[in-house]
Amino acid sequence: MRTTALRRKLIYLVAMLAMLVPLFLLGQPSSGSGDSGGQLTEMRNRFNIAESDLGEISPASETMKLASLGMRGVAATLLWNKAHHYKVAHEWDRYKATLNNISLLQPHFDKVWEHQAHNLAYNVSTEFDDYRQRYEMVREGTEFLSKGVRQNRNAPRLVWYTGWFYGSKMGMSDEKIQFRKLFSDDEVLHEKLLEEGIAVDSPEARGPYFKPDNWLVGRLWLRNGYDLVDSGVKIRRQTPLNFYETGPKWRIKHAEAIEDEGVLDERAQNAWQMAAQDWQEFGERSVPTTAAFTIKLGQLDELVRLKALRLEEFRKLTGEEMPGIENQWQPDLIPYAKKAAPEDRMRAMELADQIMDIEERRVKTEGYRNQINYPYWDTLTQAEQEERTVKARRLIYEAEKANEEAELDKAIELYEQAFAVWAEIFDDYPILTVDDSAEDLMRSIRRYSVAIDSEELADDFPLAAFVEMMGTYDQVSSEAYELVRKTQKERAEKRKQELAEQERERERQAAEEMEREREARQKMKEKTEATKMADEPDKEEASADEANADEPMDNEAEVDEPAAEEDTEDQEVMPVVEEVTPDAEVQSELESSL
Amino acid sequence: MTLQPEDFWSFYEWLFRPNAFLESALLQGIVLFVLAILLGLMVGYVISAARYGPSEGFYAVARVVRDLVRFDLPGTSPRRIVALARLAFKEAIRRKVLFVVGLFVVGLLLAGWYLNPESDDPARLYISFVLTATNYLILALALFISAFSLPADIKSKTIYTIVTKPVRATEIVLGRMLGFVAVGTMMLIPMGFASYLFVTRGIRHTHLEVTEVQELSSGRLEGETDYIAGHRHTFSIDPDSGGRGLTDMVRGHRHYVIRDEEGNFEIGPVADALKARIPSYGDIQFYDRQGNPQDAGIDVGNEKIAEGYGNAGISRLVGVAKGPRRIEHGYVEGGTLGMAEFTFHNVDANQYPIRIPLDMSIRAYRSYKGDIETGIRGSITLKHPTKPIRSVPITFYVDEYTVDEQTIPLRIEPDVSDAASEEMLAGLVDEKDGTVDVFDAFVDEQGDMIVQIRCLDSSQYLGVTKSGVYLRAGENSFAWNLTKAYISIWLQMTMVIAFGVMFSTFLSGPVAMVATFVCVLLGFSAEQVYDTRYYIDAGIERGGGPIESMIRILKQDAMTTQFDVDEVAGKVIKTVDAGIVYSLDAIATALPNLPKMVGTAEYAASGFDIFGALLGRHAAATLGYCILAFLVSYFFLKSREIAA
Question: What is the architecture, at CATH level 2, of domain B280-474?
Answer without folding.
Answer: Sandwich (2.60)
